[in-house]
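Data card: per-record layout.
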Amino acid sequence: MQASDFRAWAHHAADWSADYLRDVASLPVRAQTKPGAIHARLPTSPPEDGEPMSEIFADLDRLILPGMTHWQHPRFFAYFPANASPPSVIAEYVTAAMAAQCMLWQTSPAATELEARMIDWLRQMIALPSSFTGVIQDSATTATFAAILTARERVLGFEGNTRGLAGHPPLRVYATAQTHSSIDKAVRMAGIGSDNLVKVPTQGPRNGMDAAGLAQAIAADRQAGLEPCAIVACLGGTSVGACDDIAAAAEVARTHGLYLHVDAAWAGSAMICPEIRDLMRGAENADSFVFNPHKWLFTNFDCTAHFVKDPKALTDTLGLKPAFLRTLGAVGEGTPGVTDYNEWSVPLGRRFRALKLWFVIRSYGVAELRRKIRQHIAWSQELHDKFAAEPDFEIVTPPILSLFTFRFAPPDRRAGPPEVLDQLNARLLKRINDDGRIYLTQTTHAGRFVIRFQAGQTETTRSDVMSVFDIVREVARGVELSKQDRGADDRPQ
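The structure for this 493-residue chain is written out next.
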């Protein structure tokens, strides 16, 4: 592609993006396509000769766009959004054009030093003490994996990476069933094993970890000759928004000399609002803390803030610098911001993620970011109140920030087998998402199928949130449970 063509098509891509974000609300939220349909329409072999960009963009509109679920749709209420915003998108254009590999300070000095500053801005925004520093990771899964590896090495005297785990008593990690599956994955990948992830019971309206039960589990494991390693506390579980008492977990960790990691993947962004910070009380005593600006700080995926109190423990665990990566003369050693962040991460290669944070925070300002989050929380509470007052629905878990769960439970069906209501709600959810006007997802709570609602998309309005009540109630009126059409696809998965 010639420079003049690149300029023209770059402008076209910008126009396409602006049009997409302008018009996305008119599209069905979830992809309305059958499995395999797009795959069948794509050529089975790559083209031998190059094709015009005009044809590629035409196929983007014809083949790809209809098969996309639109995460930037203002009525995307499923999971938790992988958000974007116009300033973040613009920064991503610039990042892609520079295509920097930010593994070492010397490979991208400005990227490295900006990352150090952005991490400190985020630390201040959520009021973590200055004893924490950090790094931008790709996702909370990677950050949690790094935390579990660090905890493993600390309990093994930093010999696990060299001698392996053989000959040591089995290590034990403690969390609740409300934590994200990334905790389970991290324990597997760290060689600790799923059988050694202890799921501590929960209690209270926030479904938080039972601190007394945690202490008992640790003591019982030590008595049995096992080696307690780490505690993972949850701040805003993905399922129903569960929040552990971090201060209580920190006290147990201190008493027993264990590493404490706090997973605040989606809820951590809300900690920029001072009135909400009671949820993170005790986080100052954790060893590491993670949250995703790519969820609720309106910054394109991927961008995760991983804070640590002891960076040397992290770099002693992950750092590995062959001769070809060494900086001769230890350039700038000890200078603020001069860091080789590849030693803080699992991958060697690193994208310039700090730039989009810089654009977003400067463009909106912290006050506007707070305002958006507060609106989402208030609108969710208002929607919750409407469902709570509707006789045919019941609230299963109350709002935690902008997340609550509910189910369709007409009074005349509540006395029957619980599986009937599960099936009814599975059918309702399928009909809602097939309808296309909104997108919701499900979870299982206390053994029952429930429907989740969360608000967090950048351009969501109060009207978008309130539409959920009308659409769900409308679709629910048409849901029947007749014998002939209770298909396998209606059963909870």
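Known properties of this structure: Residues 3-68 form a domain with the dopa decarboxylase, N-terminal domain fold (CATH 1.20.1340.10). The first helix runs from residue 3 to 23.

See the next section for split statistics.
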